[in-house]
């Protein structure tokens, strides 16, 4: 199944999917757009074996959203941002978690990777939370990793990387914000989650305890 918004690169914000439902699962779907393609508004959401095409803030919102075996395809544009997660308060049990995903160029634009500078995202709200686990990071991802969002602080967010591979996966050049973290050993990551985010259970099938 495909969800497509073909408004085009110059149209601005144009959702292909706006998901406000709790306990939803998308499996084997294509979600295609050019800006703000997937609005994961709230609740527990799961996207597995799907693919998304976009250029700016592909996935945004304040849901507790898990992305497994997900193809994240950048269309051709000079600056690309994958996420804009909108966790507003430290008590919010929300965030975006990517595991075994591919952050790369769309097949149609794959030969133009050198013309693109991509980042994992930017904090739409102060307590933005994004985890990228065991994923492939292609070469057009800028070493800084993350961008600022206008009028949002960068001292309260949490951005985590663990076990990623690929030419863009080296974390040495990431921005030096307090909450940008790279873990090299699974026990360290699990300890961090248990102490700071006990409502995230990282296992073969990731779950969010929203109660």
UniProtKB/TrEMBL annotation:
Primary localization: secreted
Pectinesterase catalytic domain: residues covered: 1-188
Record pathway: Glycan metabolism; pectin degradation; 2-dehydro-3-deoxy-D-gluconate from pectin: step 1/5
Any single biological process term in GO: cell wall modification
InterPro entries: Pectin_lyas_fold, Pectin_lyase_fold/virulence, Pectinesterase_cat
GO molecular function, one term: pectinesterase activity
Keywords carried by this UniProt record: Aspartyl esterase, Cell wall, Hydrolase, Secreted
Name recorded for this polypeptide: Pectinesterase catalytic domain-containing protein
Organism: Crotalaria pallida (Smooth rattlebox)
Lineage of source species: Eukaryota, Viridiplantae, Streptophyta, Embryophyta, Tracheophyta
């Amino acid at each position: 199944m495909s969800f497509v918004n073909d408004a085009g690169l110059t149209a601005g914000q144009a959702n292909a999917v706006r998901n406000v439902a709790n306990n939803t699962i998308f499996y084997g779907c294509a979600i295609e757009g050019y800006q703000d393609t997937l609005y994961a508004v709230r609740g527990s959401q799961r996207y597995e074996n799907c693919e998304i095409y976009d250029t700016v803030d592909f996935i945004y919102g304040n849901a507790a959203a898990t992305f497994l075996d997900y193809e994240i395809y950048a269309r051709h544009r000079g600056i690309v941002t994958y996420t804009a997660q909108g966790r507003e308060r430290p008590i919010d049990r929300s965030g975006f978690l990517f595991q075994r995903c591919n952050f790369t160029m769309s097949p149609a634009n794959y030969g133009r990777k050198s013309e693109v500078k991509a980042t994992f995202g930017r904090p739409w709200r102060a307590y933005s939370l994004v985890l990228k686990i065991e994923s492939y990071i292609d070469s057009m991802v800028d070493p800084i990793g993350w961008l600022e969002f206008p009028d949002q602080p960068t001292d309260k967010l949490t951005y985590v990387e663990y076990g990623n591979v690929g030419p863009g996966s080296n974390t040495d050049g990431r921005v030096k914000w307090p909450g940008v973290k790279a873990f090299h050993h699974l026990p360290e990551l699990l300890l961090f989650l248990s102490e700071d985010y006990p409502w995230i259970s990282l296992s073969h099938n990731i779950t969010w305890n929203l109660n």
